[in-house]
Amino acid sequence: MTSSSLSPANAAYRTTVLAGDYWAHTIRRGQTFRIVDLEGNQAADTLFLDAANPENRYSASDTIRHQGALYLTTGTQLMSTEGDILLTITADTCGRHDTLGGACSRESNTMRYAHEKEFMHACRDSFIRGAQECGCELGKRDITCNINFFMNVPVTPDGQLTFADGLSAPGKYVELRAERDVICIISNCPQLNNPCNAYNPTPIEVLIWNS
User: Fold this and answer.
1) E strand or H helix at 111
2) Among positive and negative, which fits the CA dihedral 67, 157, 169, 60?
3) Residue 172, SS3 per DSSP
4) Measured at the alpha carbon of residue 137, what is the angle toward residues 133 and 138, in degrees to the nearest 5?
5) Which DSSP symbol is given to 58?
6) pTM to 2 decimal places
7) Which of 11, 50, 78, 95 has its CA 20 to 30 A from that of 28?
């Protein structure tokens, strides 16, 4: 666990993202970006794309290979599909963030839980809304690998993924330094069918500090 010395009172930008809502913003090189789990056990599904070339985007497989570990925490460099470092995690008071489980969708809700779950709002819907409104001309094809901040997805000894109760708590946060200009799109996960949000989605807070 690594705490930050940055004070929210000095942040250049600060907003709350409601449960199930989305947020899209460009984070400039050198800025520090924090996501706060305000009430605990809330998954913040997040996409990162190179602002200068959105086809150069976050890569889960390259990040895992680069750091030699499955879970993301302080010191992890988030790698792009073209081998660039997009951001570095500089503080983390939660200690568990998933990048294997992907984002929920209405289709996956139907396959995993029940046919009648198809109508339920899902992260992929929020990502599409964020992509449409970020002013970056992004679409469905730009929604690829994501990070599930605060989400606990243990990998079993036989290689299976499980959705487990979160390890986060009210006020836990993760902080990242942008190594280049990046577009960030967050879906504050609305999932109600597994314990990633403790079956009760809650708000998160986003803060940005200038370098």
Assistant:
1) helix 106-112
2) positive
3) strand
4) 80
5) B
6) 0.91
7) 95
